[in-house]
Amino acid sequence: MHPREQTIFALSSGRPPTAIAIVRVSGARAGHALERLAGHRPAPRVATRALLRDAQNEAIDDAVVLWFPAPRSATGEDVAEFHVHGGRAVLAALFAALSAFDDVRPAEPGEFTRRAFENGKIDLTEAEALDDLIHADTDRQRRQALRQLRGLLGDRARDWRRRIIEAAALVEAGIDFADEGDVPEELMVPALARIAALKDEIEQALAASAHGERLRDGLVVAIAGVPNVGKSTLMNALARRDVAIVSPHAGTTRDVIEVQLDLDGYPVTLIDTAGIRETSDPVEQEGVRRAKARAGEADLVLWLTEGGSLDEPDAGGLPDVAPRWLVRNKLDLDPVSEAEKRPGTLAAGRRLPGGGIAAAEGTAGRVFAISAARGDGVSDLIAAIRTYAEDYFAAAESGLIGRTRHRELLRKAASMLQCSIDAAGQGEELVAEELRAASFALGRLLGRVDVEDVLDVIFRDFCIGK
């Protein structure tokens, strides 16, 4: 029997030991397995207590079982659930009993969700949203994934595709039935009007969701600067734990260190980079190269200097892409430096208890004065990063797009719609062909046409049992 036709089973709850564990079985043999283990097949969707026994009539566990006949189940197939005590020995015995049945095997990661997709229970955007929901680390990520799971993008994409097909029908009617009296002589004008309105809607959705993918992955904030200015100390202070080695020797950090933060529900990936300087050490040279590359990909760069240093963020030769904030560190060692007195920098800030200075506007954008070792000003810096994340993700939370794949296919659909408008003077056949390409792009977005090449990539990251 082909693997996709076999019945699958997996633990669908937390790692044992747990109070209760849920084992799900899906496929044509699910009902047979349920009858053999529980002694009967209960009424559909009714939790029923049963003593589970294996093929040798040995008791496995006193459990609760449920039966979901196809197609009214999560996967669209026959599904049985066993709610057992969550000890490792109980689960091992139940797995052994299930494996003893012909054409019943353990599930691969994401196989339950893939079967739900293949049986039309969910579309591909909802499958991706389920994966995002499983892996959500912050409340904002959870809410975005839940909206996608409830059809935020899928419903809009289905509506757009329907309207493209309707516009294509008008164009093709003009091609195929132009000589029939009940077909309007001029169908291109209303078709083009529909196409233009639809293209504008998709482009507006793209513009409004500019940072949607970043909410899924997290805002990237890089700490950069010359060696030995306290980057690793600041990393540990922001993370509130020791994640980076702190040493008085320059060049201690050789590679990029990352840590994930949750700032009031906003995901932030904090990066500690190697000190940026000229060096003859080949290992440190590679660290500097990686530091510059990673900082160039960041959404925000914190350029760290010592309190009295005149070093500015452009001194490191970083790519000029992300905003940069100047963070003057070690004010506990030099609390009133000459740099603070310079017009246009920290002179505008107010002094904080303990010697720190609040943020001010300077030549490098926002300017902060802190002591990473003592903690002065660090809370203000965290608050500023949190506000920056809130502003950055302001439109993302209500946006449609959560993945790069979504954006690329919507851009392609909008481009094909524009091509269909441009082709209007060249013949209805060309317009119809461009509309078919736009419809195909939205079909790929939903997973309804030609998506075999992306399915393995999408479902391989799922956990087993989902």
Characterization of this structure:
This protein is α/β, with parallel strands linked by helices and 466 residues long. The chain has helices at residues 30-38, 88-99, 111-118, 124-134, 139-149, 152-176, 188-208, 212-217, 231-239, 282-297, 338-341, 378-392, 404-422, 428-446, 452-459; strands at residues 7-11, 18-26, 48-53, 59-68, 79-86, 104-106, 219-225, 257-263, 266-272, 300-306, 324-329, 357-362, 365-369. It has a 7-stranded mixed sheet with strand order 8-9-7-10-11-13-12, sandwiched between helices. Strands 3-4-5-2-1-6 form a 6-stranded mixed sheet. Residues 245-254 and 335-364 have low confidence and may be disordered.
Low-pLDDT stretches are 245-254, 335-364
> Tell me, what's the shape?
flat
User: Which strand order do you get reading across the main beta sheet?
Assistant: 8-9-7-10-11-13-12
Q: Determine the strand fraction and express it as a percent band.
A: 15-25%
Number of E-type strands:
13
* Mean pLDDT value: 80
Cα gyration radius (Å): 29 Å
Major sheet characteristics: 7 strands, mixed
How much helicity do the residues have? 40-55%
Structural category is: alpha/beta
Helix run count: 15
The arrangement of helices and strands along the chain is EEHEEEHEHHHHHHEHEEHEEHEEHHHH
- End-to-end separation in angstroms reads 22 Å
What's the short story on this structure?
The protein is an alpha/beta fold and 466 residues long.
